[in-house]
Design a protein that fits this description.
homotetramer; elongated; DNA-binding
Chain lengths: 96, 96, 96, 96
Amino acid sequence: MSEIGHNSNEILGDDEDDDIVASDQQLRLFIERIENLEGEKKAIADDIRDVYSEARSQGYDPKIMRIVIRDRKLQPQDRQERDAILDVYKAALGLI
Amino acid sequence: MSEIGHNSNEILGDDEDDDIVASDQQLRLFIERIENLEGEKKAIADDIRDVYSEARSQGYDPKIMRIVIRDRKLQPQDRQERDAILDVYKAALGLI
Amino acid sequence: MSEIGHNSNEILGDDEDDDIVASDQQLRLFIERIENLEGEKKAIADDIRDVYSEARSQGYDPKIMRIVIRDRKLQPQDRQERDAILDVYKAALGLI
Amino acid sequence: MSEIGHNSNEILGDDEDDDIVASDQQLRLFIERIENLEGEKKAIADDIRDVYSEARSQGYDPKIMRIVIRDRKLQPQDRQERDAILDVYKAALGLI
DNA sequence: GAACTTATGTCGGTGC
DNA sequence: GCACCGACATAAGTTC
């Protein structure tokens, strides 16, 4: 340890140190908020995985469940428009 | 078309219908549980994005924050091992 | 169904049909060009995977090789700046 | 600086140095092979991007082109099986 | 070793 | 006009 040092152990210091400490603290808070949120996110991701596992054990196919879920996210209108153009392209390529 | 119909409108039906309905219901519950969880997950992901935005507005670099956060997830021992090998590789390539 | 039909079976038709056919052909060419390029890209990706496999069989750690390769892509100046900020952040978090 | 040094400047040295140098050289070759391949891969990716751009300038929708291309990669049989189960699930959810 | 999930980088769209 | 923002595509990591 340095006796005087430019560290954070002084009770009374110069303003510059205060600024640095304040900044450090601010960054630390941002980081911790993010880490906490990531923790929550991971917990939910685990829950989702568990549900898929349970469904699989009941005979459902998770892969196809995912397709259904993805489809349900689309607005009916958007999907219809997309499908209309899609049909034109497929026809052009002899796919249908 | 069947005259009576093998659909879900009959008040009293055969057991097979009951089975189908039960199965449908089970799948629906799985799907809805997953969709709810995904909704929560997305909300948290949005929160994380907001924190990064706020940090950036305070002058912090989100890209480097991510590196720090990733690093903090590693066990000190693992990181040291990784860094040791990394140094060997860098030396071999004339990077240091 | 139209009597004469707006299809591609007529030997001699109207200009509109010609336009459609031309358009179809143009789209098809775009698609095929992309598919060919994607094929080449995949072949190279496979080659890369093979090199990593070979390196691993020689005792090298692919994960750390990737870090080195990523690092070598950075301009020396950029990397130094990044590392400088990184050190500040780590210090603020008591990581060093 | 060490007087004799464990570096690569000696013309004649011990076997251990030779081993290290040989190892360094091997790693370097792996890395360079990968970097070269990645360069080629990137060039092709750029070409693909250019084709999409050109197609867009001709009025085609790249997003939908991607869907078509993805679909063309599937084996007809696989897609049919998938679609069969998919229909069952969708029916259970009242999607169709 | 293959598939899926997450993370990162890029691109087009938008608002100031 | 640029810079932020969201979406998309790609690449990496992880799990089975």
